[in-house]
Write a structure and sequence with these properties.
This protein has 261 residues and is α/β, with parallel strands linked by helices. It is 35% helix and 16% strand. The strands form three sheets. The chain has a five-stranded parallel sheet with strand order 2-1-6-5-7, with helices on both faces.
Length: 261
Amino acid sequence: MSQPPSKSHGRMSISASAAPRDLMEDATRIKGAWSAKVITLLPEAFPGVLGASLTGKALKDGLWRLETVDLRLFGDGKHRNVDDTPAGGGAGMVLRADVMGKAIRHAHQNPHHPLVYLSPRGKPFDQAMAQRFADEPGLTLISGRFEGLDQRVIDHFGIEEVSLGDFVMTGGEIAAQAVLDATVRLLPGVLGNAESLTDESFSNGLLEHPQFTRPSSWEGREIPSVLMSGNHKEVARWRIEEAERLTQERRPDLWKTHSDK
Ligand SMILES: C[S@@+](CC[C@H](N)C(=O)[O-])C[C@H]1O[C@@H](n2cnc3c(N)ncnc32)[C@H](O)[C@@H]1O
């Protein structure tokens, strides 16, 4: 069995293109900034889309921190094996509990950070969960590959399983980035216009009303006249009615929860 890597390996694991590495390593350090760690076999996939636009700027400005932990470095033997065949037979490979256990002990040292495994079997990710994660000092995410994780490691660490939806991807990296994007944009200072948070889909249990912008006429389609009226009260009323209509039509589940309140 090879020696576990030293603590510095968490950050050293970032490889591939210079851009993501620069963004994650050169970020301004703000003490106590919300911090995310991602255990992954593909550290080069980060920051990915998180390095762009508002989340990228916030990362650069030190409003949040991102660290990848390369699972391969905790692998066993000369080849740093991380997986083995499923007990009981069957297709594919399973991520080993001993290897993942070492990576988790290395990465997850703050008990206030939720410890999450991205998994199609998990609780569906939603806005309330993003808010819960944003309210904590940080988050440790485990990105799976192959057939997923040995169940014992999930049970041992009491890991929360979170799903992006009822479909199966090849790995958890895209799911991790989706969870981080939705969470980071809720952190103070990340979005320029705080108001855009209060009005948008799910913030009040409803889908957002339709949006329009100039030109006022396009392909024979006009912006609803109430939005051009300058009457703020009427605009607000129209937006609520539209949000309610869309939610009833498209998401009866959300509408039921909203109207039961
Ligand atoms: C091929 S999937 C494993 C699927 C697993 N055998 C199953 O049927 O539930 C490999 C990895 O991709 C990630 N993944 C796939 N779909 C996902 C989803 N809908 N939500 C979150 N993570 C997902 C998980 O980390 C998972 O361990």
